[in-house]
Design goal:
122 residues, mainly alpha, 0% strand, 3 helices
Length: 122
């Protein structure tokens, strides 16, 4: 039964991360603006940035997701449509500029969720 409890807890935390909510209570939004993150949860008091440089892991998540999509997409388009490299770069360079900016909030939310799952109380 403990395995089910871990799966349920992980699923709950992941759902909260996708909704950009506090991983502990799931009620408070993590962001006040597009890039402005709240310092702590207004309801349960969970401190979001636990130390200076805490969100370096979020940078790795953002980079990994962006790279996997771009490189995978490059090879999929190359194999299926036989697009020339110039067209591919015309597609993927703008993607690699815009997508990480959009995904910024989610990468921080996922990093916070992973940390909260592994280390629930600071």
């Amino acid at each position: 039964m403990p395995f089910d409890r871990h799966v349920n807890r992980a699923t709950t935390i992941a759902r909260r991360a996708v909704r950009l909510r506090c991983p502990r209570c799931g009620e408070t939004p993590l962001f006040r603006g597009w890039f402005a993150m709240a310092r702590e949860c207004a309801l349960c008091g969970l401190v979001f940035e636990r130390a200076q440089g805490y969100f370096v892991g979020a940078i790795y998540i953002n980079y990994a997701v962006s790279s996997v999509i771009a490189v995978g997409g490059f090879f999929v388009l190359w194999a299926w449509l036989d697009l020339p490299s110039a067209w591919q770069f015309a597609i993927w360079v703008p993607f690699l500029i815009v997508f990480p900016l959009w995904f910024f909030r989610y990468s921080r939310s996922f990093w916070l969720a992973i940390e909260y799952y592994v280390n629930p109380e600071p």
